[in-house]
Design brief:
Layout lengths: L15 H8 L4 E6 L2 E6 L8
Antiparallel strand pairs: 1-2
Length: about 50
């Protein structure tokens, strides 16, 4: 395995601090593919909107 030195971090990396609390909720779903994050499921806590 080798790492391309020109590879940049995925654009969503700076949102992890906001994303992780949502993903710890029962029923939450997360799918990561390249530069895309898909959120799904249901969150019943009203504090998450």
């Amino acid at each position: 395995m080798s790492i391309d030195p020109d590879t940049r971090p995925a654009g969503w990396m700076n949102t992890l601090d906001t994303l992780i609390p949502l993903m710890t909720q029962p029923g939450a779903e997360l799918r990561v593919s390249g530069n895309t994050i898909e959120l799904g499921g249901s969150v019943t806590e009203t504090k998450f909107g």
